[in-house]
Amino acid sequence: MKTTFTIIFILTGYLAMSQNVASSKISWTAAKSIDTATGKISMDQNTLITYGQDSLVWKDKQGQVQGRFKIKQAFGTWTNLAAPGEMSYKVGGSQKSGTITIKKTASGTKVKLLLVNKEGIRTIEFFVTASQVLQ
Fold first, then answer.
1. What percent of the chain has pLDDT over 90?
2. Which among 29, 47, 92, 96 is least surrounded, fewest beta carbons within 10 Å?
3. CA–CA gap between residue 105 and residue 129 (Å, rounded)
4. Do residues 104 and 126 lie in contact, with contact meaning Cβ atoms separated by under 8 Å?
5. Strands of 1-135, DSSP E
6. C-alpha span between 112 and 33 (Å, rounded)
């Protein structure tokens, strides 16, 4: 019985770590961001939730939605959340359009938002401290 439990526990952990970023619902939490146009650094928490290749939602530290984006096109084949990889999304919505790129390297994970609306271009880079597969 103990062996069966151990095998199930290990298998569950492996499956959770090897989630396909392109098709899973994932929460990306950042404790720091930088507006690359102004150089302004924010230590406020932000969360980006990706819904496979359907949509993305950006929330601030209070949980208030800062942007909802419909994915028009996805680029990348990041099949293992635990491994380095990259996904880019061409997005539109909330009177904004642009690209959102999520990239994990050996030095960490970053989310880059490049958004265009009638006021101009806004580029924000988030430094991800945690990612979690959601049900």
1. 72
2. 92
3. 13
4. no
5. 25-35, 41-42, 46-51, 55-59, 65-75, 85-93, 96-105, 108-117, 120-133
6. 10
Q: What is the pLDDT of residues 15-65, one digit of tens each?
A: 444 588 888 999 999 999 999 989 999 999 999 999 999 999 999 999 999
Those residues with Cβ within 8 angstroms of residue 30's Cβ, 6 or more apart along the chain or in another chain = 45, 46, 47, 48, 111, 126, 127, 128, 129
The rounded distance, in Å, linking the Cα atoms of 117 and 94 is 9
- Rg, Å, the chain Cα set: 16
- All residues at 6 or more sequence positions from 70 whose CB lies less than 8 Å from its CB, including other chains: 54, 55, 91, 92, 93
Structural contact between residues 65 and 59, judged by C-beta atoms closer than 8 angstroms:
yes
Counting Cα atoms < 13 Å in the Cβ hemisphere of 124 gives 20
